[in-house]
Amino acid sequence: MYKFIVSLMVLSHLLWANNALQEAIDKAKPGSKLELPAGIYHGNIVINKPLIIDGKDQNAIIEGDGKGTVVTIGSSRVTLKNLTIRHSGAEHERVDAGISMNKVQQCTVENCKIVDCLFGIDMAQVTRSEINGNYIESKPFALGLRGDGVRLWYSNDNHLSKNHLYKSRDFVVWYSHGNLIEKNRGEYGRYSLHFMYTGKNIVKNNVYKHNSVGIFFMYSQDTVATGNIIENSLGTTGLGIGMKDASNFVLKDNTIIYCARGLFIDRSPYEPDTVNIIEGNRIIYNSEGIHFHSLSLHNKFLDNTFKGNIENVTNDSYNSKVTENLFDGNYWDDYEGFDRNGDGIGDRPYNYYAYADKIWLLNPNVKFFYGSPVISILNFLAKLAPFSEPVLLLSDKHPKMYEGQV
């Protein structure tokens, strides 16, 4: 491809004379590289040819007019890097964004700072593109009125890495497949990562803190989530990782800590003859370790650590058949047993029961007292002298005696 670099001196004169960044883009040859000196350049701009725009150190600011999208990319092989992009419109129905990409491929957005934009990066029918190292913050609205920090819609085979979403709404992946989402950070949002009708994505080594929901997989399949850290997902909707109608998943080596609910499982797996593998995760110090909602069979819980949870497992549905899930080789900090042969495995199974007199735990007003001495005493009395025959929720035949044991 023909490469043409506009000199800083010529470009500076062109842009500072009349703030016509759009004019410079229109005059540039396909494949040109525009290096922007520090300053404020007026949006809203449209890029309809292969082009590189480099702000060098984020001191080149592309500022929208407060209406619509600041930068619209309508061509493949466009690169935006080292820019500050700010001040989009505030209308959800138009998806006002910092950057909008539609029906393009092989584009790159790298090391950009996107602030005061309703939506951050909106990707519709985008393939084989790189979204890496960006900082994204929405407008200072109430949580539900913010736009999504990153939004994928029918977008496949993209790489999204090392982005930091702060006080945006969601990172959403809809009808999108084959994407690699890694090493991102999300804070003070709603869904730090939300999948709908997706498949064959990889989610690894992300850190999500202080969001309403960590990762939620809905109506999706064939996805791997590994090495993620989800922390402090609190409130009435708070959960670490959720699966609804999710089939053929692997959740491995994730840490879920200080959440209202660690794992939330709703009718998963959904597709016949599929299995979800939940292996090697640390589910620790949550109000509930696993929350089963509706019929969920054929999940395999292997070599996980359950520690410090107020309730390791809860089930809110009648006849959900939790016992038809496989639990094997997990560490349970409330296991009461011995290891006489010294093989690191308990001599008898770990059995976890639901007691009828724990129904009061479903009362949100009473949940305020979780962890208090009074509740601890009531739990002890319920086990010592239950009012009715307890219901077996799960049985782990080979419980590990030591946390982190392989």
* Tally of contiguous helical segments: 4
The fraction of residues in strands falls at 35-45%
Radius of gyration: 25 Å
Taking the sheet with the most strands, its summary is: 14 strands, parallel
Tell me how many strands there are: 41
Proportion in helices? under 10%
Structural class: mainly beta
Q: Assign an overall shape.
A: elongated
End-to-end Cα distance, whole Å, is 53 Å
Spans where pLDDT lies below 50 across 5 or more residues: 1-18
Describe the strand arrangement of the main beta sheet, using strand numbers: 1-2-5-8-11-14-17-20-23-26-29-32-35-38
Mean pLDDT over the full residue set: 89
Please describe what this structure looks like.
The chain starts with a strand and ends in a 10-residue tail after the last strand. The longest helix has 12 residues, at 373-384. Helices cover 8% and strands 41% of the residues. Residues 1-18 have low confidence and may be disordered. By secondary structure, it is mainly β. The strands form 4 sheets. A 14-stranded parallel β-sheet has the order 1-2-5-8-11-14-17-20-23-26-29-32-35-38. Strands 3-6-9-12-15-18-21-24-27-30-33-36-39 form a 13-stranded parallel β-sheet, with no helix packed on it.
Offer a concise description of the structure:
The protein is mainly beta and 406 residues long.
Summary keywords:
406 residues, mainly beta, 4 helices, 41% strand
Q: Could you outline the blueprint of secondary structure elements for this entry?
A:
Layout: E1 4-6, H1 8-18, H2 21-27, E2 32-35, E3 39-42, E4 45-47, E5 51-54, E6 60-63, E7 71-73, E8 78-81, E9 84-86, E10 97-105, E11 108-110, E12 113-115, E13 119-127, E14 130-132, E15 135-137, E16 150-153, E17 159-161, E18 164-166, E19 171-174, E20 180-182, E21 185-187, E22 191-196, E23 202-204, E24 207-209, E25 213-218, E26 224-226, E27 229-231, E28 239-244, E29 250-252, E30 255-257, E31 261-266, E32 276-279, E33 282-284, E34 288-293, E35 299-302, E36 305-307, E37 311-315, E38 326-328, E39 331-332, E40 350-354, H3 364-367, H4 373-384, E41 391-396
Parallel strand pairs: 1-2, 2-5, 3-6, 4-7, 5-8, 6-9, 7-10, 8-11, 9-12, 10-13, 11-14, 12-15, 13-16, 14-17, 15-18, 16-19, 17-20, 18-21, 19-22, 20-23, 21-24, 22-25, 23-26, 24-27, 25-28, 26-29, 27-30, 28-31, 29-32, 30-33, 31-34, 32-35, 33-36, 34-37, 35-38, 36-39
Antiparallel strand pairs: 40-41
